[in-house]
Design brief:
189 residues; Rossmann fold; 7-stranded mixed β-sheet; 6 helices
Length: 189
């Protein structure tokens, strides 16, 4: 995961990691990309976090408008009830980019497979699992609502070895770098 991030994120940016969890991905990213300056927030700050993490209420990021270059949310948005409002916050806080790694509801038993994966990886940490998975069209509508435009998208992330990839990969995962429309009024409030 960190390798994809390192390849997709432009150089010398300030990055806000929203929903950083244990900080493992961000920690790996910083080792690969020491040019990045990273901050992290989460609704539940873990004692064993590998990076300093600030608490936030799950609604409003504790940052001023246009205070970071890039906001990244890795497997976060399907855990929130209102994806649109979190994307609006990301657009408000970011000067340039929003980077998302999440899931598509695509193909046979996609929703069930994603829910199973979420339960196995997150239930132990008490993380909410509303299973708010989106289709590709729904994601595109959310981007349009928040004046975000695709720069790069990767659909083949290679997160699992075979035969697990046949079950859990199946074009269910994506990572997307989006640019923030600097001219739209809502992106400056």
């Amino acid at each position: 995961m960190a390798t994809h991030l390192a390849e997709m994120i432009p150089r010398n940016l300030t990055v806000l990691d929203v929903g950083s969890g244990d900080g493992r991905i961000a920690s790996s990213l910083i080792k690969m990309r020491p040019d990045l300056k990273l901050s992290a927030i989460d609704t539940t700050v873990r004692d064993n976090a590998m990076i300093p993490t600030a608490h936030y209420d799950g609604k409003k990021f504790p940052f001023n408008a246009k205070s970071v270059d890039l906001v990244m949310m890795i497997d976060v948005l399907h855990h929130v009830e209102d994806i649109n409002s979190i994307l609006a916050e990301a657009s408000r806080v970011s000067r340039q980019f929003v980077l998302i790694k999440d899931h598509f509801v695509r193909g046979w038993l996609a929703r069930q497979t994603l829910t199973l994966m979420d339960n196995v990886s997150n239930r132990q940490f008490g993380i909410a699992i509303p299973a708010n998975y989106q289709t590709e069209d729904q994601w595109n509508s959310l981007y349009a609502n928040n004046h975000l435009e695709s720069v790069i998208r990767r659909d083949h992330l290679g997160l699992y070895v075979w035969p697990l990839s046949w079950i859990f990969e199946r074009h269910l995962h994506f990572m997307q770098l989006l640019s923030v429309d600097k001219l739209h009024p809502s992106s400056t409030q």
